[in-house]
Amino acid sequence: xxxxxxxxxxxxxxxxxxxxxxxxxxxxxxxxxxxxxxxxxxxxxxxxxxxxxxxxxxxxxxxxxxxxxxxxxxxxxxxxxxxxxxxxxxxxxxxxxxxxxxxxxxxxxxxxxxxxxxxxxxxxxxxxxxxxxxxxxxxxxxxxxxxxxxxxxxxxxxxxxxxxxxxxxxxxxxxxxxxxxxxxxxxxxxxxxxxxxxxxxxxxxxxxxxxxxxxxxxxxxxxxxxxxxxxxxxxxxxxx
Length: 240
Fold this sequence. Notes:
By secondary structure, this protein is α/β, with parallel strands linked by helices. The protein has helices at residues 41-48, 70-74, 92-102, 107-120, 136-148, 166-181, 193-199, 217-224, 229-239; strands at 2-11, 15-25, 29-34, 56-61, 64-65, 77-80, 154-158, 185-189, 202-207, 210-215. It folds into two domains: 1-76 and 155-165 and 184-240, 3-Layer(aba) Sandwich (Rossmann fold), CATH 3.40.50.300; 85-152, no CATH class. The strands form two sheets. Strands 6-7-8-3-9-10 form a six-stranded mixed beta sheet, with helices on both faces. Strands 2-1-4-5 form a four-stranded antiparallel beta sheet. The chain starts with a strand and ends with a helix.
């Protein structure tokens, strides 16, 4: 569960990236996070994961405050950043073992999990190679494996589908569905409305740092009497 209460973030003293956001994301749901570039998606996600500190408000992950109980809260999170270009001098397996060490995953458990995930995402032959030689898509897949190796209950994913090949995108979507069936939480940002339509139980729309809609896509379509997703999205952000 993710609980966000009255959270704001301002840059340079006058640019309000996130404006008094309150959200309660329950367990057992896939929630899609949608907004234009600059709407506040990545800023909110970075506050949810403890990378940024809110100016005010609180964020709790499974009841643990992300600031006051930072380490304990982060143990519950699997986070995929919007950029996979990090630790590139490490081989894939060195990077995953590094993340596994941080989360204190025992050797037997991590070996089984790495084997499973590497097979799902077509990374078996790349694990012993430096990540600086990977394509963008391969780096993205390695970020997915590293985020999931400690079996977190809450997945927070910033544009996780970008760069994934169709096979890997299907594998990740399947894992998302299985994850919430076990009573866990998936919160992910996307700019592809069709992905949100097919995958999400509910959607959150943010515009200019404010939440302008939270609920099912079906309810939104019914309210606006429109079925074209792009037209619907633009109408919501223009009317709020």
